[in-house]
Specification:
Helix 3 runs antiparallel to helix 4, helix 12 packs antiparallel against helix 13 and helix 12 runs parallel beside helix 14. This protein has a domain of about 160 residues: Glycosyltransferase (Alpha/alpha barrel). The protein is of the alpha+beta class. The strands form 7 sheets. A 3-stranded antiparallel beta sheet has the order 1-2-3. The protein is about 45% helix and about 10% strand. The protein binds 1-deoxymannojirimycin.
């Protein structure tokens, strides 16, 4: 796919050197490395691959270059926040002891590999490979990846493990790195399946009512809570089912279906038929929020994302039915005069809007709904992977992969 796209575009050779000395982006904005990468770098890369417009490629690489100073730490693990003008970076104030967040430094791989492919500059891929190398090397408690890591010492800072917020897209990018590499990135594949085994052994639970869920793990103690964010994992486990041990294929498909079912239950059990930010499985609760502070819905995509993946993988019509229920609930409760708004309490029929349309509503929630009701040959999974903000990136064919990223591909490729 990637080589074909090079044929489509003009073949202009991008020079990393000229880009580095010719900085056209300026400004002193302070930004999240993770958010800039998944939203803007990912968006620009997609825009380039979908249109062939050189402008998008050049801007993606220019912006990627602005992010590089965040990696200047003793371990190469980037810090979470960067001043795009000065290149100064620091850790989030709320992150324990100056640590970096697993879901942030672990969600750069797809975009950075494409930046190297497009710029012929190995630096981007080197940065993400050194993150992977460190993660491979350090000891993991019970094979699990805690959410906080010191970019100075390279040690875990505390043992909180979650497939939801703070951890989520790290796991997603492992299996997607493998798929995006045309199934050549064996290291990503092994790491993904090992992580999945540890998650299954320690986090996956069944409620008294028979719902499968992913608990959170705090130094060996389970918190029987599942965040809305963790509901992306149904789709992830589904797309990873084919490439693990053959005897586990059906097991992973079943697990993906069970998790997606549980996430649907979190919607079905609310008054608005939209799901809360987090739901629990303790004190008699089954897939419902028990705390006032968890009852909001901010137009998040993860549940619908899993419906879309499970529909493509199984063609079971229930996933389209569930997606349509969500469309109707969004129309009824979230549509406002100028767009769509989050709501403060999914269990109250007379909704209170939060007056905010998050950008992921357009880039993810509506896109996944569109894909759920489209034919499978629209952005087919064999040719595309979606970054964690749902920006499609092409699979890099084996024949096109550049290890040292020194040559521009030509028509004859
Ligand atoms: C998105 O920004 C991304 O999917 C991210 O990985 C976590 N979830 C939000 C939307 O809920």
């Amino acid at each position: 796919m990637l080589c074909e796209i090079f044929i489509y575009t003009s073949g202009l050779l991008y020079s990393p050197e000229s880009s580095r000395t010719n900085n056209r982006m300026s400004g002193n904005g302070e930004a999240s490395l993770f958010e800039v990468n998944i939203r803007y770098v990912g968006g620009l890369l997609s825009a380039y691959y979908l249109t062939g417009e050189e402008l998008f490629k050049n801007k993606a690489v220019e912006l990627g270059e602005k992010l590089l100073p965040a990696f200047n730490t003793p371990t190469g693990i980037p810090r979470g926040v960067i001043n795009l003008g000065s290149g100064t970076s620091w850790s989030w104030g709320w992150a324990s002891a100056g640590s970096s967040i697993l879901a942030e430094f672990g969600t750069l791989h797809l975009e950075f590999v494409h930046l190297t492919e497009l710029s012929n500059d190995p630096v981007y891929k080197e940065k993400v490979m050194s993150i992977r190398k460190l993660l491979n090397k350090i000891e993991k408690p019970h094979g699990l990846y805690p959410n906080f890591l010191s970019p100075v010492s390279g040690n875990w800072v505390q043992h909180h493990v979650s497939i939801g917020g703070l951890g989520d897209s790290f796991y997603e990018y492992l299996i997607k790195s493998y798929l995006m590499s045309d199934k050549t990135d064996e290291d990503a594949k092994t790491t993904y399946y090992n992580a999945m085994e540890a998650i299954e052994a320690n986090l996956v639970q069944k409620s008294p009512g028979g719902l499968t869920y992913m608990a959170e793990w705090r130094g060996g103690i389970l918190d029987h809570k599942m965040g809305h964010l963790a509901c992306f994992s149904g789709g992830m486990i589904g797309i990873g089912a084919d490439d693990g041990a053959p005897e586990k294929r059906q097991h992973y498909l079943d697990l993906a279906a069970e998790i997606t079912h549980t996430c649907h239950e979190s919607y079905a059990r609310s008054t608005t038929k939209l799901g809360p930010e987090a739901f629990r499985f303790d004190s008699g609760a089954e897939a419902t929020a028990t705390r006032l502070s968890d009852r909001y819905y901010i137009l998040r995509p993860e549940v619908i994302e899993s419906y879309m993946y499970m529909w493509r993988l199984t063609h079971d019509p229930k996933y389209r039915d569930w997606g349509w229920e969500a469309v109707e609930a969004l129309e009824q409760h979230c549509r406002v005069e100028s767009g769509f708004s989050g709501i403060r309490d999914v269990y109250t029929a007379t909704v209170s809007h939060d007056n905010m349309q998050q950008s992921f509503f357009l880039s993810e929630t509506l896109k996944y709904l569109y894909l759920l009701f489209s034919d499978d040959d629209l952005l087919p999974f064999e040719d595309w992977v979606f970054n964690t903000e749902a920006h499609p990136l092409p699979v890099i064919r084996k024949s096109c992969l550049q290890d040292d990223a020194t040559e521009e591909k030509t028509v004859s490729d």
